């Protein structure tokens, strides 16, 4: 009788771990903001939840979405990257999370022409109204980017303290790991 009870517990635990793994890889996952590139919107060490179905289904994020990206844009991502990036797998394997996941805001989508001129960001010739940024950009020169197909352009809200698409380049859609889940306080 004790052996059957033990087996029931092991089976239940294995099911729960498997379900947590599947949900974390394909549906939603917690992330921790590292650094100050998203100040004042998000703070260093703040925990956020990310909706991963957009990654699973290869959906194009909207302008203004806060996304988690894999900043290693020069390499191809695989399912193994999603698996070993899951916190439960890292806990079981005793591995540490590398610092290549960035939290940024989507400012450009495929086909967009982005320009920085006079310390302001323009998309397709229209100056963007960005009340969420910390301060005016301290860009020393005007710059332009044309976002290629199947890529996005991201920037931090703290533009003067952010490593983003201005530095690492365009973000392939398969490197967009998910979008921040917005919780409503009215629920």
From TrEMBL:
InterPro entries: LexA/Signal_pep-like_sf, Pept_S26A_signal_pept_1, Pept_S26A_signal_pept_1_CS, Pept_S26A_signal_pept_1_Lys-AS, Pept_S26A_signal_pept_1_Ser-AS, Peptidase_S26. It is found in: Cell membrane; Membrane. GO terms for molecular function: signal peptidase activity. Its main location: membrane. Residues 7-179 form the Peptidase S26 domain. Belongs to the peptidase S26 family. This is Signal peptidase I. It comes from Brevibacillus ruminantium. The lineage of its organism: Bacteria, Bacillati, Bacillota, Bacilli, Bacillales.
